[in-house]
Design goal:
Elements lengths: L1 H32 L5 H18 L9 H9 L5 E2 L9 H7 L8 E2 L21 H27 L16 H7 L4 H20 L4 H17 L3 H21 L4 H20 L4
Antiparallel strand pairs: 1-2
Helix pairs in contact: 1-2, 1-3, 7-8, 7-10, 8-9, 9-10
Length: 275
């Protein structure tokens, strides 16, 4: 019960953060439209806007109003996501929305990671500025230590076969034991594709490449063990990865690794057929 109470409080912190951001935007628009507006009138306008946002606004595209999310959390009711995928560009979200990881509702939550994107005391969870400044100094020292260790490893030539994947972790051995038919195998491959899509977005990659990668991956998943369909879909996916490597050379290691994984999956698929 204590854990749930703390989680509900964290949900409200996220809601409050997004509300503050919404009110800052609304205040800017209102002042730009009416520079001579007085403090009382602006306060009244923002109060009304806050009430509207709580009753009819949305968080991260979720159609559930913030006030409803807060009330459900206070009642210890799990949050169930409905509607389209959370991120239509994310292979994992798309697979989950299609029920590929099993039937049943999709539970969701708000971890508040975007609070860290506003590196300001006003948006922190610290009670005092002194506490926030100490936290910032701790972060700075930690980052410097990690960077120094990384440079030392590179200088010593350690770990020459380190993984090219940085934001996703996949236990390859466990996935091989699970077999290609396991949803966990598909999830592991999807995690790599999702990281590559994130890299494309960060590099301002073209929408055409992102959509082509998603379409090729969807077709590969839809083949579902059919030998001819799987081979054709795998060839299209490999070609798309070639296009990504050509357009973004710094992503070549990841594209090449995905091609290797794809080839290995195809060899396993062929070995499963008796003829």
């Amino acid at each position: 019960m204590l854990f749930r109470s703390q989680f509900a409080a964290e949900i409200e912190v996220v809601m409050y953060f997004d509300l503050c951001r919404e009110l800052l935007r609304a205040a800017w628009d209102r002042i730009a439209a009416e520079p001579e507006i007085g403090e009382d009138a602006l306060t009244k306008t923002l109060h009304e806007h806050a009430q509207w946002w709580l009753a009819e606004g949305s968080i991260d595209g979720d159609p559930t109003p913030p006030a409803t999310i807060i009330e459900e959390e206070r009642r210890r009711k799990p949050l169930v996501r409905t509607g389209p995928p959370h991120d239509p560009d994310c292979p994992l979200c798309r697979l989950e929305a299609e029920g590929e990881f099993g039937a049943g509702p999709t539970f969701c939550g708000f971890d508040g990671h975007h609070l860290d994107l506003d590196d300001e005391f006003a948006f922190s969870l610290c009670a005092t500025r002194e506490e926030w400044e100490k936290e910032q100094e701790d972060y700075r020292r930690f980052n410097e230590e990690m960077e120094a260790k990384r440079r030392a490893r590179e200088a010593a030539g350690e770990d020459p076969y380190a993984s090219v994947w940085k934001t996703s972790y996949v236990n390859e051995e466990a996935l091989r034991e699970a077999g290609l038919s396991s949803p966990w195998s598909v999830m592991g491959f999807a995690m790599r594709v999702a990281e590559l899509i994130g890299d494309l977005k960060a590099a301002a990659g073209s929408r055409e490449l992102i959509e082509a990668l998603n379409m090729a991956f969807d077709a590969y998943c839809a083949a579902d063990g059919d030998r001819s369909l799987s081979a054709a879909a795998a060839a299209q996916l490999a070609e798309t990865l070639e296009q990504i490597a050509a357009a973004h050379p710094h992503l070549t290691p990841k594209a090449a690794d995905l091609q290797s994984q794809l080839a290995e999956r195809e060899r396993q698929t062929e070995s499963d057929f008796p003829f």
